[in-house]
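Me: I hope this is not a bother. Any chance you could explain this protein sequence and its structure tokens? It all follows right here:
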Amino acid sequence: MTEPENNRPSENNTPPVDNIGEPLETQLQKINLELAKGQLQKLNLEITALKPKRNGPAVIVPYIPTIMALLSIAGFIWGVWLFLNQQERDRKTREEERISRDLTQYRNSYEQLLQFSSNPNITVQRVLFLRDDIDHLIDSIYPADKQPDARARLKANIFSLITKECDFTQTRHVQLDIAALEEWKDYEKDLKETPNKTYINKYIRAIQYLHTRDPKYIESVTYTPEIGYREVQAPKELLSNSFGSLVEGFRLHLQLMGKKERDEAIQEFAVVTNNPTLTADLFSSDAGTLLE
């Protein structure tokens, strides 16, 4: 006889097959094992959560070419900066060395120029070169706003050298004054703007000195533009070169003077030479009137 369906045991109410017939102790062990497994899984999850995420490199990988390019550009810029910085330091070093050399040369040239009157080995041409060299070095050593003062000092030193230290009884000293008038326009310009009778007086005294050494020569010599100086009586010593230089320098200074000062200077020349004919021949003046 078949049992009613209501009396059949439900499949859902059927106890696990594994537990059927197992001792209670075994079941407790399995429960403890499952708990231990759960705690171990939980611990592993906590440990995993504490570890750094490993997806960083994967995120960076697409940007690696850009990063490398930026690093290359930065390295190039750094190299260029180092190069330019080194170039600037080298330029400053070379500039300092150049200024030091120019300053040494400037001082040496100045010293030689000012020794002209006391050192017979320094020629007039050497002085002309030294003056031009100093003028060029001023541009190199001094800033633009200091250069006019430096040139003014140079000109003042040259004037002082010629007016105070040069002895016009020495032909070499007279030739320096002549060269300065012919070669240095600022020298001639200043003398013309501010006449200085010191030069004329130096020439008159030097001519007078030659007259005391050989009066007959000075009083008898004549001059024509075609022939030059004509010696009626030969000098006791070689005075013609010295006298010729003195007359040339004297004539150049006359051209810078006004008429009144010029006539006075010519009259002094006629007196110290006691040679009115020579005076008239040289300066196209009436010597007789000048001597009155």
